[in-house]
Amino acid sequence: MAERIFLREVRLENINKTLLFYQNSVGNVSCVVWDAALVLTKYLEKQSSKSPGWLKGLKIVELGAGLGCVGVAAACYGSDVILTDLPDVIPQLEKTIDLNRAAWNDKGKISAVALTWGRNKPGDFEFIHQPVDIILLSDCVYYEESVEPLIETLKSLSSKSTEIFVCQEQRDTEKMKAVWKSFMNKLYEDFTASKISVYEQDELYASPDIVLLKVKKK
């Protein structure tokens, strides 16, 4: 099947910004803006409407950023954002950053850095330069073999003051249910997690099939 590239628009109504993303009709990951990313993006928008200065000046890291929708939105609200993903995804993230420069440039900062999850050494995070205030993850829990490396990276990146937002579509195959259960079991060893109800989320961009968690280190 030949790939087809097209533009996806995501509106941030409260600041009158339109974000743009190159989507690819062929591929499984890092090719489209997934529903979980939209839910988390619109949650940030809603909370920023309630507390306009909430994200201003915060150091934010998005893990498994894909097309970078959530992180770019955070930069539009004044955050200093680092989008991270595997090395082969970084060129696409850099295109996303440039494509949306007019939306974020007058408010926040944003960059893209390659980061492979796992037993990271302290030097692996020198690019951050300061403690991380918020970590963002949307649809990052997909493969059993990535669960433990992801947890290790969360432990390395976070402090007890770091807020972690995990947004994940609950897929109904037995394999995906098992992967999510494995992730949550390992997460609870070092973190607490509370579910953000659909009533606290955007009225349109929320679904009982997409769980949104606020996670803190114990």
TrEMBL record:
One Pfam family matching this protein: Methyltransf_16
CC terms in the record's Gene Ontology section: cytosol; protein-containing complex
Signal sequence bounds: none
Name of protein: Uncharacterized protein
Lineage start: Eukaryota, Metazoa, Ecdysozoa, Arthropoda, Hexapoda
